[in-house]
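dude i think i finally got it to work??
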Amino acid sequence: MAFFVWLEGTRVAMTVRDSLMLTGALSAVHLVGFTLTTGGALVANLNLLGVLFPGRRAMEVTRPATRGIALGLLISVVTGALLFAPRATAASVNGIFQTKMLLLAAAVLFHASVHQRVARSDGPALARRGTALVGLLLWTGLAVSGASFILLE
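look at this
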């Protein structure tokens, strides 16, 4: 907790806290990052499910989608850290925020490991569909928890 208290007292945290315009701009850019991330994940998983671009090999779709996910994550992590700093103490003990962070880690790890391996192998349809459904559930859970955190904060 001492770290979060310290973080809230930093000049960056106080600047963000004291500027509605800066907080709004950071939130807007955070949403752009989130859109790139979830959009890329949606495209990659719907392709693996066989719904989107069914005639293309999975890696043809997953590779550029993963670049979109990575760029979106970079934007979201930077802006998210700046938005987190002014309310670090409260957010760190918020169950919805903790769920959001857990789902983010799980979705990224799942995409980087399982999804990528299945997309590269063009394995059995059942494995592709199962992987796509798990990926969609993780990314959708992240979106719902992120929206809930904003609405219930």
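The chain is about 85% helix and 0% strand.
im so relieved honestly
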